[in-house]
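User: Quick sanity check before I run a bigger batch. Here is a single chain. Can you write out its predicted 3D structure?
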Amino acid sequence: MKKIKLSSEAAYVLGILLLSLSVAMIASADFGVSMIVAPAYILSLKVSFLTFGQAEYIVQGILFIILCIAMKGVRLIYFEAFVTGLIYGAALDLWRVIIPHFNPDLYAPGSFSMPLRIVYFSVGMVMTSFSIALLFNTYFFPQVYDFFVKAVSHKYQLNRTKFKIGFDMTFLLISVTFSLILFGRFNGIGIGTVIMTCLNGLIIGAFSKLFEKHFAFEPRFKRLASRFEL
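Assistant: Done. Predicted structure follows.
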């Protein structure tokens, strides 16, 4: 069967928009966000003048510095991963402003009926996996979180899956510790965090197989795409 051709650049833009929307949706459900974004979310809950997106800049900025140390140097192209994080953070804050239910100043997270919270969480989790699968089909670097795994495992010839698991568990430990230190209890993490930890990888894999079977993602700017090779 002939595959449908899609633009890698369009997949990148759509992936960021949907990923940021899904995170805003999951935060509003208040069952716990994913372990990766939890440190930024917890920070935004504690520091009132920081938005969720701005807190993401801080966390990803720190991780970017650690990345450069681990890579024993920095290439200018690495900064594109941080640019992706900046776009994502801005989109995240925008969704939380223009959609009333996702705006914490209008509706406190978790203040909706249980059925609606479950819908928001479920749709957000599936949309998260869908958007990440989209971003895997672009040549642009993903956010610093995923780029860290990609770049470091590539440089040191590590098994990416095992390194990703270790990376996720590290962020889970950081999130739990961070929450207990700042609040003395779990805040921003919960049963939803556990569910996403168990299911996200499987759902991402399912979407990736679907895309591989039916779509061909091709760059419109081939010379630009060649610059993103590690």
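The beta strands are 4-7, 215-218.

User: Great, the batch can go ahead then.
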